Amino acid sequence: MLNDILPGLTSSDPNAPDSPSPAPNTAEVDESMQPDEAPISGRKQFGTFGGVFTPTVLTILGVIMYLREGWIIGNAGLLGGLLIITVGFTITLCTALAMSSITTNIRIGAGGAYAVIAQSLGLEVGGSVGIPRYLSQALAVTMYIFGFREGWLFLFPSHPALLVDIVTFAALYGIAYISADFAIRVQYVIMALIGASLISIAMAAATGSMQYGLGEIQLWGDFMGTPDDPSQPNSFWVVFAVFFPATTGIMAGANMSGDLKDPKRSIPVGTLAAIGVSFVIYVILAIWLARSATPQEMTNNYYVMMDKAYWPSAVLAGLLGATFSSALASMVGAGRILQAMGAHQVVPQSDWLAELAPDGEPRHSMMVTGGIIFASLMVRDLNAIAPLITMFFLVTYAMICAAVLIEQSLDLVSFRPRLRIPLWVSFLGLVGSLIAMFIINPTISLVALAVTLGFYVLLARRQLDAPFEDVRSGMFVALAEWAAKKVTVLPTMQERAWKPNLLVPVETSSDLRGSFLTLQDLTSPQGSVKIVGLSPNGSPKVLDEQLDTLTAAFRERDIFASATMIDAGGFAEGLRAGMQALRGAFFRPNIVFLRMPDSPEREADYRHVIAEADREDVGTLLYAPHPRAALGQRQTINVWIRDRSPDWRISMEIGNLDLALLTGYKLSQNWDAQMRLVTTIPSPDQQDKARDFLEKLINLGRFPNTTAVVGTEPFETYITSAPQADLNIFGLQPEPNFDTIRRLVDQTDSTCMFVRDSGRESALA
User: Fold this and answer.
1) pLDDT value at position 1?
2) Alpha-carbon gap, residue 538 to 522, rounded angstroms
3) Which helix (H) or strand (E) holds 226?
4) What pLDDT does residue 5 have?
């Protein structure tokens, strides 16, 4: 859209992106953690004026000011133009305040916006924004070189365009490659040129260029169009989209944080001062243009400011200086962003890219950046992706505001910025940046967001190891606390929200290894495992280390797992203490998982544990593996239901059967197995009623791939002739007979589970 409105303006993003931000020498100093410590030898430190104010103000007073502000006032009128300028700067000011606030709370290190986002929201989010931002910043250099070439050819039309581009690139690369200090000194010269152009305009105003009185100027414009097609009307938002990129580029000061003497003071003061000075200049120029030229002159002539100035050559010099400064700042800043991402292993060949020269300059990253820029120069026309460059800058600003908004909303004690701002400021910056994106170009905005999301997915799979803490843990804890508060006001019985949260007692790591896959199948995908370490041999430290390894193995399989050690005497005492202690936990265990006891003493312990589980409303699952068959092929599961003759009525209260059915269902889903509901009755006249009960149970329980089986023999006889299964599930009595349990394992010739309800689950919910 911008290219249709602005023929002849090669860059749709006339702001100068980030200025130089030196990166740490990864072999000596990790500045992402310690940027306020002693600088690397040979690196110069800058103050507020040179390090922040100068690069920031030069990013704003750019091509839009010289070539498009007149067109904006001509289309929108004086009041309309001032409204556009005010809205644009308001969005930018909110973003700058958010950025300034967070830079006073963290040690920002190298990388500018990338470092801010990475330290707040994690390396994955920082990299997903940083990679496209780096590429767009490198390509922006090409755009600025094209813009510089147009101004140069205005003076010397006979010079070959390609030669001008190559010579300009060589000059820029040479300055950026030497040092950031040299680049800053060059920017002082460019600032002097821009100052001279503004003096030329002031002289014109003093000598009578403002020939139209306030009663003669157009206050609200007709939005006439472009010089190429004045008949094509514009709108307020179309004109706003043309102006808004001029107000971006405010990260220049933040990107210099590694080179600043006092970044926590210089970044807020320098950035906000630059925005204030730039806003005043834009407003004064708008008034001067409205009183010095007619709307037709401003909309039909992009060089109206040059024509009306006292020294037109000074304005042209300012225009050339603005494009050159923007290109220089983008090139230096891009190299530092790439080096910072290399230091955090975000990009390929990270170790090589992270290396610094003895004077602290990231020359390897500058080589790669220079190669990308030179290759894009050979393309000769980047108009197709020009809007995308602007979008990636706006995505970055939106993420900065989002990071601050999240920090403010969580109200963590670690968020103690020296510059505090109201929550609505960061919210307005976030919303304003997103709205500006879609006003400028909705389609390209969606592409930019999709690219950012794609990089995030790729980086998330790599499981990057950050050298710093971020806010994500606090965000998830706050979310969990909010959920916990909501749950506490709900009724106690929440059968629909039930999921298996297992409490697993472990005395040796081998106890858990033997049933690891079974526990995984019982809890996947939404359940959890809480391991309670009980160390009878007096070596809790060894067991604790083993449990950490086992819980990590569960997490690798996307099972939420945690472990704790309890020293409360014997097995039963320790496990009972664990159940009592976890009574008020948010993720409270609802099933205690027990393996078959191997001694009479442990059988007695189990009876105490089952009784305690009943008192705590916790279910019990006794796992009795077959010594030879184990879990077989995991293709069939029998869930045994006791004889209910003569009352086969079905209701929501189905006795000690809910947990057995839910256990069978979970395993059948994770095994892709068939489930059978099995019962046997001694009286044949009850067979139809029993089958009808089972089929209704299957229907009401919504159990897929499940069949009903009814035998007509006594249980003791039918148990050996029933359909064979890889797993048989039975009910568990409050005073279990372990000899009977062992006999059932032998008679079914399979692994068995014996299950007792807690009263808080429902298979029919």
Assistant:
1) 34
2) 31
3) none
4) 33
Q: Which helix (H) or strand (E) holds 763?
A: none
Strands 619-624 and 751-756: antiparallel
Q: What span, in angstroms and rounded, lies between the C-alpha atoms of 278 and 234?
A: 26
- Whole-angstrom Cα distance, residue 377 to residue 726? 68
The kind and range of the H/E element at 468 are none
Residues 404 and 518 in one domain: no
Residue 664: closest CA among 697, 711, 687, 689: 697
CATH number at residue 697: 3.40.50.620
Do 574 and 698 lie in one domain? The reply is: no
Share the mean pLDDT of the chain.
82
Judged by phi (left if over 0) then psi (alpha if -120 to 50, else beta), residue 181 lies in: alpha
Buried b (16+ CB within 10 A) or exposed e, 243-261: bbbbbbbbbbbbbbbbbbe
> Could you count the other beta carbons within 10 Å of the beta carbon of residue 538?
8
CA 6 to each of CA 66, 88, 124: distance values in angstroms, whole numbers, following the listed order: 14, 19, 37
Residue 584 CA to residue 565 CA, distance in Å, equals: 18
Instruction: Decide if pLDDT at 704 tops 80.
Output: yes
Residues 579/503, Cβ–Cβ less than 8 Å:
yes
| CA distance linking residue 614 with residue 470, whole number of Å | 42
Q: Which of 461, 62, 502 is nearest to 245 (CA)?
A: 62
Tokens of residue 539, six digits: 């070596």
Q: Which two tokens stand for residue 350?
A: 């990270």
What is the extent of the structural domain holding 680?
A: 625-765
Do 338 and 456 lie in a common domain? yes
Indicate whether 590 pLDDT > 70: yes
d(CA 459, CA 693): 53
Does residue 397 register a pLDDT over 70?
yes
pLDDT in tens, 398-442: 988 888 888 888 776 677 888 889 999 999 999 998 998 888 888
> What's the rounded Cα separation, in Å, for the pair 624 and 604?
17
- Regarding beta strands 560-565 and 727-731, do their DSSP bridges make them parallel or antiparallel, or are they unpaired? unpaired
pLDDT digits (tens, 9 = 90+) for 214-232: 777 888 877 776 655 555 5
| DSSP secondary structure string for all residues of 484-553 | HHHHHTS-S--GGG---EEEEEESSHHHHHTTHHHHHHHHTTT-EEEEEE--TTS-HHHHHHHHHHHHHH
For residues 657 and 618, membership in a common domain is answered with: no
Alpha helix (H) ranges present in 361-441? 363-379, 386-410, 423-440
In angstroms, the Cα distances linking 735 to 22, 590, 604 are 72, 20, 10
CA 673 to chain centre: 38
Confidence of residue 18 (pLDDT cuts 50, 70, 90): very low
Residue 589's H or E segment, with its range, is none
Tell me if 336 sits within 8 A of 362, measured CB to CB.
Answer: yes
Q: Which residues pair with 731 in a beta bridge?
A: 755
